[in-house]
Amino acid sequence: IGGHPKPQDGPTKPSGVQRIVAIGSGKGGVGKSTVSTNIAVALAKQGRKVGLLDADIYGPSIPRMMGVNKRPASPDGKTIIPLHAHGVTLMSIGFMMEEGKATIWRGPMLMGALQQMLGQVEWGELDVLIVDLPPGTGDVQLTLCTKSELTGAIVVSTPQDVALIDARKALDMFATLKTPVLGLIENMSMFVCPDCGSEHEIFGRGGVAAEASTMGVPLLGTLPIDLETRLAGDNGTPVAAGDSPMALAYARIAEGLIK
Ligand code: ADP
């Protein structure tokens, strides 16, 4: 009666949310959260109503990257009022935890937290809810892909072989779970020396583009290693909030995402 999804119910979506797009990766550290926050901010700058759900339960970085970290209010003890930053409606398990403390939870608790963040947060009217997944192919991905009505998933990878091998596993998981893959993003694809302009392919280059063409999915963007991106993330104002070439690159990715 209470409107909470029962296990036998089909996939659900918070009412008022038009699309849910999950952003995943095979490995950690490839820039998935950086890409999630920047796409969300770029979409908001284009006038979209955007939510960002940090489902990276073991390593929530959204509070730091979006520069907001306080406990969301829950006036009735049931629904949760999300936070807002850079035009984006936000929820992260990190808001409920002390920074520096480990999440030591068993599967059912994790799933409970995920369901709560999806179902009990007052997301309001959103054109798109971006979900920053944990890396890999675990319980959170499985729950989200089967229990919520995902529009599709984006996979972020560096061009390095070890990252690509795991990215393929993530792609395989989405295929198995019948979650459409909207495209791949190659992050840290090269480094342009700020002094002399020469290009350095630190993690290689082009590997993700090749994978996208093999898989028959779009390559949504190719993003270089960029100091400003890193600093902006650490400072809580994503690079997409500004007007640098990186902000432009994210604006292009965001434009392609919602037509
Ligand atoms: P993940 O979510 O995949 O674990 P993060 O987004 O947390 O990865 O990124 C890992 C680190 O790399 C962060 O410190 C972030 O600022 C940095 N980073 C991500 N993308 C870039 C980039 N294109 N250029 C420079 N630093 C980056």
UniProtKB/TrEMBL annotation:
GO terms for molecular function: 4 iron, 4 sulfur cluster binding; ATP binding; ATP hydrolysis activity; ATP-dependent FeS chaperone activity; metal ion binding. Keywords: ATP-binding, Hydrolase, Iron, Iron-sulfur, Metal-binding, Nucleotide-binding. One of its GO terms (biological process) is iron-sulfur cluster assembly. Residues 1-16 are annotated as: Disordered. It comes from Sulfitobacter guttiformis. The lineage of its organism: Bacteria, Pseudomonadati, Pseudomonadota, Alphaproteobacteria, Rhodobacterales. This is Iron-sulfur cluster carrier protein. In the N-terminal section; belongs to the MIP18 family. Belongs to the Mrp/NBP35 ATP-binding proteins family. Homodimer. ATP binds at residues 26-33. It comes from the Bacteria. Binds and transfers iron-sulfur (Fe-S) clusters to target apoproteins. Can hydrolyze ATP.
